[in-house]
Every structure is written in C-alpha cells, then in structure tokens.
Amino acid sequence: MNKRKGFTLIETLFALVILTTGFFSVFALLRKSISVTTTSINQLIAANLAQEGVEIIRNIRDSHYVSGDDWADVLISLGTDGNCDDCEADIENIILEDKTDPYLKINSDMYQYALGNESIFKRRISVSNDGSGLCGELVIPGDCIMIEVDVFWNERGNEFTFSAEDYIYNFY
Is 80 part of a structural domain of the chain? Predict the structure, then answer.
C-alpha cells in the first residue's frame, strides 16, 4: 500500500477558501467598527455643541441679571419679545442673531463662527417666549423661555441631527 503524506490540491484549496473568508470577515468587522466609532465621536461632539447652545442662552440671561437689568431686557436681547427662530450664537459672540446657516469653525478645540477651519457641524438655536412646551403648563408663560438647539452634520452621505430642549425662568 502506498500511503501519501501531505495535502491534496483540493484540501489546499479548501483551506485557502476558509482562510480568505476569515480574513475578509475580520476586515469587514474592522471597517464597520471604525465607521461606528466615527459616528459615536460626532454624536458626542454634537451633544456638547447643543449643550453649549443652551448655556449661551443661560449666559445671556445671567449677564443681564448681574448687570441689574430686568427680565424685559433679557427678552429684548433674545429677539423680539424673547422669540428667535433658527438663530446663531457662539461662545465668543453671545449675541443671538439670524444668519445664513454657516458651518461652525474649529479653532484650537473651540467651535465658533469667526475663526478656524470649517467643521462638519451647523448649530441652530431657537428661543420662544410664547408659552409653548412646559412653559405654558408649569409657570406664567411670560416668565419662561423655551430653548431648542439643533446640531446638524453630514457623514458618509447621511444627515444626522442632535436636538436638545431646555427652559430658563424669570428668577428676578
């Protein structure tokens, strides 16, 4: 009897197919995990930008309080009677104004509209003093401002949005 030692051509091809399938699966998994990581990072940045938008409005209210102004001055600075739809403000320029929807720019780890390289993010801030949301249910409508912040960005052909909503009150 003649016993052969080694692999036949079919066994070798079968092993090669299994190894190739394994390598492609690992590469597909790596590609997907990198994509998910990038999306998660952008969602975290968007959440922080939305929170910053809320804090900018709080800062406007608190600055007026420290200056001795009254609630009416806060409403005037936030737009006509405390209403401003799709406005923009950043930490460097805390004046709320309606603009042409530019991208935020990043400059030394800070997002702003004036300086830096254009980022993928857009932020829109809306404030209303018309008693909408919880303002009409919990307090006197004129003593509450609803803040809505939306952050938009495009990634790999998909549009993403992160939204935040908060309320500030007249504690004067």
Answer: yes
